[in-house]
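I have been asked to look over a protein record a colleague put together. The record follows directly below this note.
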Amino acid sequence: MNNGMRTVIYPVGDIAKAKALFGKLLGAEPYVDQAYYVGFRVGDQEVGLDPNGHKQGMTGYWHVDDIRGSLQALLEAGAQLQEDVRDVGGGRLIATVKDADGNLIGLLQP
């Protein structure tokens, strides 16, 4: 079902300060540098900074090849739909479910 958790999103209050800190930490320049999101790629790992992340509560996404099939499998296994599949730009699809304990599980199809 999955290709692993390869996207970690950090909710940030000051995106400019966070961009400077994570740039030093990761030794990389962002490949996306917008007011709504700053994204770094280090190997296969993506580290994102989201100034609206505190509202969403998400911090990581499992990369999957078939988001709709993976979402259906999780729902059949007892997960509750939090956010249905949506395009976040560039053809990237995300969806979110809650497990039985209320933990959020994010899916991302690149």
Q: What stands out?
A: The chain has a mean pLDDT of 90. The chain has one domain: 2-109.
